[in-house]
Amino acid sequence: APCSIPRSLVISPSLGGTPVTPQLTESLRRILFGGTFHVFNYEWRKSFFQFREPDSELSYILEADRGGARAIQMVIQARIIKFLLFSQPGITDRRTVHSLSQLQQRDQDKALAAALSDSLWLAGQEERATVTLVTEDYCITPHLDYKLDDFTEKLQLFTFDRKDDVWKFILDHIQCFKAEGSHGVILFLYSLICSRTVDRLRDDLSSNTSHLLHLSLGNFVCRQALLNLLLTGRASPHVFNGTLQFGEDGQPLERPLLGVLSRSDVGYLHWSREQMERGGLPQVGSMLKTPRFPVWVCCINSSYSVLFSLNRSLLSDWRMEHQFQLFYCNGQNSQRSTARLTVDTHSHHWEAPPAEADPEKRFPSLEMTIRTKWDGAAIDWNGTDPFY
C-alpha cells in the first residue's frame, strides 16, 4: 500500500535509528486505544503543528484543530509561549506581547522544536528521549487481526541521551511535524509514548484508566492521563496533588488513586459549566495550578486554550497578585489579536450580576476558570467582548 505521507517528509533509511517492532506497534495501539483494532481517524491524521503567518501579531500562535488533537496542540502552544518568554537569555527586561509577534519562520521552527523536545525530555525522566519518524519501507508485516494504517508500521526510532541533541534533531526534521500531510501530532504522540516507555506508562496508569485516548461523540479525545503526561512527564490519571489512599468515607481504597507528584513547569486550569451545575467540578491541585512559569493550559467546557502572564514573579511574590495582566489565546482562526485581561484580587470581591438571564454572560466561562486559581477576582476584559 502507498504511504499516506508525502515523500518529502519520509526519511531515508541511511539516517540510522531503530526500526519499529511488531511488539511495539501493538503496544502503541493498546496504550492509546485499549486494543489493536482501532486506528487514528482522519481528524487526527490531518493534524500537525502549524503557526500563523510569520511576522504577524499572532505569529507565535499555532492553528488548533477542532478534534481530539487540539489538546496536544494547546499544550505545545503553552510550551512555545514559555520558551519565547522565559527560556531565552537576555529578554527579561523587555518581555512584551509585542515581542511574541515579531517571529520569523526560523524563530517559529526553533520554538516548536524546543516545545516538542521539552515534553519528550520530561517524559524520559530527563535522562533520554525518543523521536519517531516515518521511513520508506515497512519495518514489519502486521498480523491478520491487526488493522494497517500505512505509517505506524514504517516508524524509525531515534533515541538521545542529551536534551540539546533531541532539540537539534527535531529542528533538523521540523517539516515532519509542521508540514501538511506529515501526521505531525501523531508522530509526536508516538515519540512521547516511546520516550516515557510503555512499561512506565502502565505503572503510571491505574486499572480504571488503562489507555490514553477515549472515544467521545465519534472522535478520540485525550484522557487526563495524557494531558498530565504532556504537562508533567508522568501519565497520572488525576489532577489532585499526590496519591489518595482513602475514600470520602475515610475507608482505605482498594487501589490508591494516583495524582500529580511534582510541580509542572506549565500549569493547568479546568472549568466546566455542566460539571459545576452538577456539583462535580474536579479540584485541580497546586502542583498544576501553581506551575514554575506563569503559563496555563485551560480546559474550559472541554475546549482547550492558553492563559499566560509576562511576569515570571507572579507565582513567587504574593504582592504581584493584587492586580495583574493575563493574556489569552484559543488557537481558533476567529481570534485576531491576543486578549488582555486585568485581574484584580484586592480591591473588591467579584459578584455575579443578579439580573442577567444568560448563564454565559452571568458567569463567563474563562472568568470562572481564572477564579479557580484566584478566588473572587474581578476581571476586566479591557474593551474586548468576553469569549473563550
Automatic annotation (TrEMBL):
<dbReference type="GO" id="GO:0071108">
    <property type="term" value="P:protein K48-linked deubiquitination"/>
</dbReference>
<protein>
    <submittedName>
        <fullName>MINDY family member 4B</fullName>
    </submittedName>
</protein>
<dbReference type="InterPro" id="IPR025257">
    <property type="entry name" value="MINDY-3/4_CD"/>
</dbReference>
<dbReference type="Pfam" id="PF13898">
    <property type="entry name" value="MINDY-3_4_CD"/>
</dbReference>
<feature type="domain" description="Deubiquitinating enzyme MINDY-3/4 conserved">
    <location>
        <begin position="29"/>
        <end position="383"/>
    </location>
</feature>
<dbReference type="InterPro" id="IPR039785">
    <property type="entry name" value="MINY3/4"/>
</dbReference>
<dbReference type="GO" id="GO:0004843">
    <property type="term" value="F:cysteine-type deubiquitinase activity"/>
</dbReference>
<comment type="similarity">
    <text>Belongs to the MINDY deubiquitinase family. FAM188 subfamily.</text>
</comment>
<dbReference type="GO" id="GO:1990380">
    <property type="term" value="F:K48-linked deubiquitinase activity"/>
</dbReference>
